[in-house]
Amino acid sequence: MLWLLRRIGVSLVLVWVVATIVFMALHLVPGDPAELLLSSGGVAPDPAAVEELRDRLGLNRPILSQYASFLEGLAQGDLGTSLVDDYPVAQEIALRLPRTLEIILAGTILSVVVAMPAGIFAALNRGGVFDKVASWVAAVLLAIPVFVVGTLLVLILAQQLRVMPAGGYVPLLQNPTQHFVLLSLPALAIAKGLAAVVYRMTRASVLDALSRDYVRTARAKGLTPMRVLLRHVVRNAMNPVLTVLGLQMGALLGGTVLVEYVFNWPGLSTPLLRAVEGRDYPMVVGIVLTISALFLLLNLVMELLYAALDPRIRNA
After folding, report:
1. CATH code, domain carrying 165
2. Most buried residue among 14, 16, 81, 216 by CB atoms closer than 10 A?
3. Domain count of the chain?
4. Are residues 193 and 310 in the same domain?
5. What predicted TM-score, i.e. pTM, was given to this entire model?
6. What does R_g of the chain's alpha carbons equal in angstroms?
7. 26 and 158 housed in the same domain
8. Which DSSP string do the residues of 14-79 spell out, in sequence order?
């Protein structure tokens, strides 16, 4: 329990550090945010309007006062109001975040289901035909950018073969079948690179575990090959795989923008791009902080999984 509380405490401190960095970066950007927001076509904005907006954003207050209000809002779950459409940032994120997490989760499940068994089988048959072909396919998948894969999927499956829709979104409760059909292509595009990484790490970790003394000892005791594989090889090989999986999933939190754009999936990418173009600072800050917090939460979950697989980690 103490180990868990320590990890949670570290995660909370890191969230505070990230929030502070984002706040400082916002105030270190050259120029007056109020003037930038009101500028249009190179025409200087009305000074009275600029002053009104500065007062609305709290930019006239001392920096420490702004920082204190910023942290107080975060503690209450208040991320501010969008400057573009005057809509609460937290509500916009709450609406769109589950859709982004859905394609990440679907892509991760698909990659794990395919890549982990493939990596184990390739390691057990090192140098065989399957090992060579799978390793070659993984290298090719890693070399192809995700937006290229997404474009090819739309071109081939949607436009040429006409077996899948090109993109869009339907709520799950409205039409479950259509929802999962529309989800499949974005999930497949995300899964291609993740599956290649998981495959290569699984293969390498299993090969390393197979050469360990504890595996030879287990075999000498007369344990069945399946028990040796599951209890001594796979279990000890999973920690490096989970590390890579956690890092890759964290990267996907900020890397699904192109996938959502290609497939017209209404996740976080749409408000993020709109906020960047419209200089909607509260929306940008809210989305960045949300992604950062989720990345830290994901790392905490991975550490809990490490501890479940290897109890020695709890004493580290």
Report:
1. 1.10.3720.10
2. 81
3. 2
4. yes
5. 0.81
6. 24
7. no
8. HHHHHHHHHHHHHHHSSS-HHHHHH-BTTBPPPHHHHHHHHHHHTTTS-HHHHHHHHHHHHHTT--
Residue 284 counted as domain residue:
yes
Establish if 9 belongs to a structural domain.
Answer: no
Q: Which residue has the tokens 């979104």?
A: 169
60 and 127 in a single domain? The answer is: no
231 shares a domain with 118: yes
Helices (H) and strands (E) in the chain, counts: 14, 0
Q: Are 77 and 90 in contact (CB under 8 A)?
A: yes
Least Cα distance to 183 among 239, 119, 256, 122 occurs for 256
259 and 265 Cβ atoms separated by less than 8 Å: yes
pLDDT tens per residue across span 104-120:
999 999 999 999 999 99
Helix axes 89-124, 129-143, angle to 10 degrees: 150
The owner of tokens 């894969």 is 149
Structure tokens at 6: 């320590």
Identify the three-state secondary structure at position 101: helix
Same domain, 19 and 152: no
pLDDT in tens, 238-267: 888 888 888 888 778 777 878 888 888 888
Q: Would residue 310 count as lying in a domain?
A: yes
Range of the domain at 38: 15-78
My answer on whether 270 and 137 are in the same domain is: yes
**CA gap 280, 70 in Å, rounded:** 16
Phi, psi of 169 (to 5 degrees): -150, 135
